[in-house]
Every structure is written in structure tokens, then in C-alpha cells.
Design brief:
Elements (H helix, E strand, L loop, with lengths): L1 E6 L4 H12 L3 E7 L9 H7 L4 E4 L3 H13 L3 E4 L6 H14 L3 E3 L5 H13 L5 E8 L9 H13 L20 E2 L5 E6 L5 E9 L2 E9 L6 H14 L2 E3 L6
Parallel strand pairs: 1-2, 1-3, 3-4, 4-5, 5-11, 6-8
Antiparallel strand pairs: 6-9, 7-8, 9-10
Helix pairs in contact: 1-7, 3-4, 5-6
Bound molecules: nicotinamide-adenine-dinucleotide.
Nicotinamide-adenine-dinucleotide (NAD) binds next to α1 and α3.
Length: 248
């Protein structure tokens, strides 16, 4: 049995994760941690009371780095769904995970379809030099651009280091009109609107053609298969992984 703690247990993702863990034959839920009305208010409180094999974190961008540092420094394997970590923070978590042989699995997106969208975008990047990403989320999302769009741009730029944003010198008469320039000049545009959960389009253009690769999440159940896979992987391997695509 894998003893699971869910951090952010009262949140939208936390509630869905609890349902998924409760249906998994090989997992036991031992702690529900949330700063707002949780069974435990902090990871430290939970650790002092129960034995945790893997902690699953779906909290908020401003908490995740501290939570992850605490877990890795205290030999608690962690699966991170929370977005908003910087490249420097991810590099630091990788080095702590390797130093202490403690699992750290970070996935900006746990939905298999979304990960396939990212992999297809990486594949298409070999054939196009113009690409932009549009990501759509509900209007309570705290960070922009999304972790998924940043990871997508990173994967695309691993395949092609020659993306061009425009074909002429551009003037933004309204700041932000052209979105945010991310890795290798791939622009990201963030839409926030009630009605969406999470969607993303990756557009590629060349003379006379546009290729659009799109994924839509209809509900939060779509992430659960990936979360449980990551928990099992982390419990067995206790290493550092960034991206669900590495274990599909
Ligand atoms: N990786 C993925 O596949 C994926 C999918 C959806 C959402 N997300 C991300 O997951 C995160 C959570 O999303 P949500 O929609 O569930 O948010 P939410 O606001 O509904 O829930 C967050 C919960 O975390 C709690 N919390 C905040 N800081 C905490 C801390 N330090 N310790 C304990 N609890 C804390 C809050 O009280 C709240 O109950 C966001 O960063 C979101 O972008 C990732």
C-alpha cells in the first residue's frame, strides 16, 4: 500500500484527487492537508502524525516551492501538479531530489490528451518556423501563462531553435498585444474566462497553410489517470521527473 497525503485537499483538484485515491486498490489516503479547514494545516503537522510515502500537491503558485523544499528535505516523495514554479526553482528541486534520492515528479499537465498535444506540437516543430500558443483557462486561475504552455514551448524549442515571431519589425501600440515571448521566440497568449477548465491551441503557420493542434479538458477527472500513474512511478523509482510524457 502507498500512503498518500493530499496537500490542497479542499481545492478543486484536491477534491478530485481524493476521490481517485480512494478508488485505487494500492493506495491509502492518510492525510488531507489544507491551510483552509484541512485535517492538517501544514505538511509538517501531517508528518508528525502519520507516515507518508507520497504527497500530492495541488495548492497555489506562491506555496508550491516551500512545500516541495520541505518534502525533499524531509524525505517525503512529492508529486507536483501545482503550476508556477520557475526554471531556477525546478533546477533546485531536481538537485535536492538527486541529493536525497527522494522522488519529485512535476507535471504541468496530468491529462494524457494534453500531453499528447504537447508531443505532437514538438513533432510538428521540426517542419515549421512560425508558431504561437493560445491557452484558455477558467477565470480563477492565479498564474499566467499556464505551466502547460510554458512546457509546450520548451518542448517545441528542443526540436527547433529557429522560431520567428513575425516577419517584420513589430510595434505594439497596446502593450501585450503580441502576448508573451517565451522560449525561442514562441509567443504565448493567455485567455481567462468563466466556462473554460483548461484548453490549449498550438498554431503553426507557413506559406499557404495553418496547422492547429488543440486539446480541451471537459472536467478534472481527465487528470486523475496521470496523477495515479505518477504516484506509482514515484513510489517505485524515487527520482526526478519533469513531465508526464516521460513515463507514458
Ligand atoms: N498539473 C495539472 O494537470 C493541473 C491541472 C489543474 C490545475 N493545476 C494546478 O493546480 C493548482 C491548484 O488548482 P485548483 O484549481 O485545485 O485550485 P484551488 O484554489 O481550487 O485549490 C487550492 C487549495 O490549496 C489550498 N492551499 C493553498 N496554499 C496551501 C498550502 N501552503 N498548504 C496547504 N494548502 C494550501 C487552498 O486553501 C485551496 O483549498 C493550480 O496551480 C493549478 O494551476 C494543475
Amino acid at each position: 500500500m502507498i500512503n498518500i497525503a493530499v496537500c490542497g485537499s479542499n481545492g478543486k483538484m484536491g477534491q478530485e484527487v481524493i476521490k481517485a485515491v480512494n478508488t485505487a486498490d494500492d493506495m491509502t489516503l492518510v492525510a488531507k492537508i489544507d491551510i483552509k479547514d484541512g485535517e492538517f494545516a501544514t505538511i509538517k503537522d501531517a508528518k508528525n502524525s502519520v507516515s507518508i510515502d507520497v504527497l500530492i500537491d495541488f495548492t497555489q503558485p506562491k506555496s508550491i516551492y516551500e512545500n516541495a523544499l520541505y518534502c525533499l528535505n524531509n524525505n517525503i516523495n512529492i508529486v507536483i501538479g501545482t503550476t508556477g514554479l520557475s526554471d531556477e526553482q525546478i533546477a533546485e528541486l531536481k538537485s535536492l531530489s538527486e541529493k536525497y534520492n527522494t522522488g519529485c515528479f512535476i507535471a504541468p499537465n496530468f491529462s494524457t490528451g494534453a500531453v499528447l498535444m504537447m508531443m505532437f506540437a514538438k513533432m510538428a516543430s521540426k517542419y515549421f518556423n512560425n508558431a504561437e500558443i493560445i491557452e484558455f483557462h477558467h477565470n480563477r486561475k492565479k498564474d499566467a501563462p499556464s505551466g502547460t504552455s510554458i512546457k509546450t514551448a520548451l518542448m517545441m524549442s528542443e526540436e527547433n531553435d529557429n522560431f520567428t515571431a513575425g516577419n517584420c519589425p513589430e510595434i505594439e501600440t497596446l502593450a501585450g498585444a503580441r502576448g508573451a515571448a517565451s522560449y525561442n521566440n514562441i509567443h504565448i497568449h493567455s485567455i481567462r474566462m468563466p466556462g473554460y477548465i483548461a484548453s490549449q491551441e498550438v498554431m503553426f503557420g507557413a506559406d499557404g497553410q495553418i496547422l492547429t493542434i488543440r486539446h480541451d479538458s471537459m472536467n478534472r477527472e481527465c487528470y486523475m489517470d496521470g496523477v495515479l500513474r505518477a504516484v506509482r512511478y514515484t513510489s517505485d523509482n524515487k527520482n526526478f521527473v519533469y513531465g508526464l510524457e516521460n513515463i507514458l
